[in-house]
Amino acid sequence: MSKKTIAITAFALFSLFFGAGNLILPPQLGFKSGNLWWLVAIGFCISAVLIPILGILAHAKLQGTMFDFAKKVSPTFSLVYCYLVYAISISLPSPRTASVTHEMAIQPLWDSSSLITSIIYFALVYIFVVNRSKILDVVGKFLTPGILLILLLIIGTAIFTLDFDFGITAFKSPFTHGILEGYQTFDAIGAVVVGGVIIISINLKDSAASYEVKKSLIRKAGWLAGLGLFLIYTGLIITGALFHDAFDPEISRTALLSGISLKTLGSTANLMLSILVSLACFTTAVGIVTGTADFIKGRFNDSRQAYVITAIIGCILGVLMGQFNVGYIIAVALPALMFIYPITIVLILLNVVPDKFASPKVFRWVVATTVLFSIPDFLGSIGFGDAITSFTQWIPLGENHMGWVLPALVVFVLANFMGKNQDRL
Question: What single-letter DSSP state applies at residue 48?
């Protein structure tokens, strides 16, 4: 594979990851992080860059579909997991892209309803999805460079024109807050969803390429896209931190980004931001709907009709859910993320480690432990936090809503240790 092919694939990966949540979350994180912006940035980039890129590396290893991520637990579990992830994806992050586009790119310029925005938006998404063989070239060659150019203008202007004064952090636990805010990007879920889109697109372009060639291409493109995401996220967090005293402390995510754009780009801010939001959100919506349609198509014997029907349903859901404002969609998404995100992270990590450390038994034990210890975080996110405090305080990191981490790690070690002892016997 040529360097040009690697670059195009990396651009496509970057663009498919970088959507609505990725755009509006980092500035507010920086705005509230104060002098500890770097600690928040590290936490955010772990869940929003490192884990997703590991998901792409897992795809490079598996070169299958999302079903392959969880099949070692059991085929039934994998099927339920896939349907759950795709249902969440087309019901929350995909519609959120239309909501963000309307609030930041359309509403400030034109007096039109969110319904009209959503209809036009998802009509265009549908056109791209049904012409999926062209996704890689169109996204990689044309859309991503525009996103990068506008972002660099905003970040560069802030860094080179403002004094490095950051104020005091508003977070009790900056590092874990950054990790949990990274959940809202949906990037770990995005990795298992859009990674399959990239693989299918590569197969359509060069079906004769060997497993090793495709693996090398995906790995190199993945790390390159990850570097780009890391630099952009960190830049946006620094930018938000530099404007810590320029806006109302209770300003919304979308209003903050609009305000930063106005202060850095002046009179051209609205137009520039409109282009940025439209491109970033649109490419993510295309990736989500395409990935969902691919999965359903595979479940129905590669039926083209199933692919088209799924794309239509995904776009209709996008229109319906896109009527809600961004803040509401983010709040609604939290319970689902507190449950499904830890499972997704664990599945990614288990698929990345060497096979000798990730037998079916290890998969089953670690995933079961993760599900069990994610339940308190899920209950806390739907308003039962006080009722389970006496339980969560005994779980390491439970108060930080990450009580699943250490139990899953301990079970992983124990399962491998016991497996090796049984092999000796």
Answer: I
Q: 415: Cβ–Cβ under 8 A, 6 or more apart, which residues?
A: 359, 361, 362, 365, 366
Helix axes 187-205, 326-352, angle to 10 degrees: 70
- Rounded-to-5 percentages of helix, strand, coil across the chain: 85, 0, 15
Tokens 């990191």 locate to 397
Nearest partner of 240 among 19, 22, 25, 14, judged by Cα: 25
**Where in the chain are the domains?**
3-352, 353-425
Q: What is the DSSP secondary structure assignment for residue 113, as one 8-state letter?
A: -
Residue 231, judged by CB atoms within 10 A of its CB (0-12, 13-18, 19+), counts as middle
Quick: pLDDT tens for 318-348. 999 888 888 788 888 888 888 899 999 999 9
Q: Which fold has domain 3-352?
A: Amino acid/polyamine transporter I (1.20.1740)
Exposure of 323 by Cβ count < 10 A (0-12 exposed, 13-18 middle, 19+ buried)?
Answer: middle
The tokens describing 60, both together, are: 């490079």
Place of tokens 């979350």: 25
Give the model confidence (pLDDT) of 220-279 as tens digits: 888 898 998 999 999 999 999 999 888 888 888 888 888 888 888 877 766 777 777 777
